[in-house]
Design a protein that fits this description.
This protein is an alpha/beta fold. The chain contains 20 helices and 13 strands. The chain is about 45% helix and about 10% strand. Strands 6-3-2-7-8 form a five-stranded parallel sheet, with helices on both faces. Strands 5-4-11 form a three-stranded mixed sheet, with helices on both faces. A three-stranded mixed sheet has the order 9-12-13, with helices on one face. Helix 7 packs antiparallel against helix 8. It is globular and about 65 Å long. It starts with a strand and ends with a helix.
Length: about 500
């Protein structure tokens, strides 16, 4: 087995594609906050493509870790010169492997905050990108505004504070750049939330205004926050994945990434100081991202939630198993056709029927081995963002809401913490205790789960929705997920 590093690249199995460019010539132009599997299967991969064409050599990535848990990624990447194996798993069982070379450095901010700020203020850095998950933007679930009560944010707002949050680091770096005459960077969100650039704009600007109103005005005038839509199913790396890379490819990789063949990135063309020629690597660079992101959030992401809870309750633990079950595949397609699609605008260059069929095929890929538990995690961030807007639009238009109501009811049933086989469910959610307690109050109040206005707003006040939710929840309890889903799509 060959350890993965620059020196050993040429010793790898010829079946493994490796960077065919001189990595010693790469220069950092992007700092990425939140390096994980998705970033490495997606944005870093696109840059690697460009670098292989002799382009973007001054746009290499420096990862920036802010959380204690990021020390693992620091150790993995720095121990391998930033290299890692990206394994694409095809539905027919064959795998494609490539070593990605676009990440050349990693700074772990808790160890050396000043080193992190120095990297962010380097004039060569012209983009700061983020994959920090929905919860990383500190949006108050009720008001939609920046949550100034967050303890870490309050600490970063103190005079002369050493930053600890993304807001503290980015705003302090922009302050220093303004002070020393260095051009600002672009803040590029690559997270899976609607209007991600605009959300980042509002949240970082709000932090800046609470810190320094004059600086906030300067950021408003000079720092772009482009929107983007990102898509590639990338499950959490497992020990089995590491073993596959070691045994089949002969590579000793501390943290490889496995993913599906499909990938898409739609990016608004709005940057302060240039950008890589992303379009040459297959990125759709457009003026308006919204139609694409709504398509993805309401079809792909909300469908993930539609299959997750009913699948888990029924005993499935892998996503492809749920989608290879014809009943659940029909349920997903029915949700997409009758409830999600009517809420979408036309999407330039996209055939929605083909897109929906492709989604079912992607979800059914047995090679990816994505877990149902991953899709069930952090539901309190996902359902309000991905599914509730579909419900609201259909309530306003008089459209169908039965299937969406059943998805919410399936989450409530899942949040009770026991599946249909009597096995305990580990609820992974920032509000786990709260949603669990609400779900367990069903016997005294059958819509207790819906009364959380932080999550559902006023849905509990809409009798049409409440009636559909109540029927589905009662059915999940009385007859189980399969019978409930069958009734929904057949009757």
């Amino acid at each position: 087995m060959t350890s993965l590093n620059d020196e050993n690249l040429r010793d790898l199995d010829p079946a493994v594609a490796v960077p065919d460019y001189d990595r010693s010539e790469l220069r950092v132009g992007i700092v990425h906050i939140g390096v994980g599997g998705f970033h490495r299967a997606h944005q870093a991969m696109y840059l690697d493509r460009l670098m292989g064409e002799g382009k973007a050599h001054d746009w290499a990535i420096c990862g920036l870790g802010l959380l204690p848990g990021d020390a693992r990624m620091r150790d993995a990447l720095l121990g391998q010169d930033g290299l890692y194996a990206l394994v694409v798993k095809h539905a027919d069982g064959h795998n494609e492997a490539r070593v990605i070379g676009s990440i050349v450095d990693y700074v772990f901010a808790p160890d050396d905050p000043e080193a992190a700020l120095e990297r962010l203020t380097d004039p060569a850095v012209r983009i700061v990108s983020l994959t920090v998950t929905e919860g990383g933007y500190n949006v108050h679930p009720v008001t939609g505004e920046f949550d100034l009560t967050n303890a870490a944010v309050r600490a970063d707002l103190a005079p002369e504070a050493t930053p600890s949050t993304s807001f503290g680091y980015v705003v302090e770096a922009l302050r220093r750049r303004r002070e020393n005459g260095t051009a600002p960077f672009t803040v590029m969100s690559c997270d899976n939330i609607q209007g991600n650039g605009e959300v980042a704009h509002r949240m970082f600007s709000a932090f800046a205004r609470a810190k320094d109103a004059e600086l906030a005005d300067w950021i408003e005038s000079h720092v772009p926050f482009p929107n983007s839509m990102v898509d590639r199913i990338t499950p959490v790396t497992t020990d089995a994945d590491r073993t596959l890379v070691a045994d089949e490819l002969g590579i000793g990789d501390a943290w490889p990434v496995v993913t599906e063949p499909f990938t898409q990135w739609v990016l608004e063309d709005r940057f302060a100081a240039g950008r890589p020629s992303y379009e040459d690597a297959g990125v759709q660079v457009v003026e308006d991202v919204e139609p694409y992101e709504l398509m993805k959030l309401r079809l792909l992401n909300a469908s993930h939630q539609a299959l997750a809870y009913v699948g888990y309750l029924s005993g499935y633990r892998l996503v492809h198993e749920v989608c290879q079950d014809e009943l659940f595949a029909r349920f997903l397609r029915a949700y997409m056709d009758t409830e999600a699609t009517p809420t979408l605008r036309p999407v330039p260059g996209v055939d929605l029927d083909d897109y929906k069929s492709t989604l079912i095929e992607r979800f059914s890929n047995p090679g990816v081995r994505d877990t149902v538990a991953r899709l069930c995690a952090e539901s309190s961030d996902r359902i309000p963002t991905w599914l509730v807007p579909v419900i609201r639009d259909n309530l306003a238009s008089g459209g169908e809401i039965r299937l969406s109501a059943a998805v919410v009811a399936s989450w409530a049933r899942y949040a009770e913490g026991v599946d249909e086989q009597g096995e305990p469910i580990e609820i992974v959610d920032r509000l786990a205790d709260r949603v669990h307690a609400a779900a367990l109050r069903r016997s005294e109040d059958d819509v207790a789960f819906l009364r959380d206005r932080d999550l559902f707003g006023d849905l509990v006040d809409h009798e049409r929705f409440v009636e559909a939710y109540r029927w589905a929840l009662d059915s999940f309890h009385a007859r189980g997920a399969r019978a409930t889903v069958a009734d929904l799509i057949d009757g």
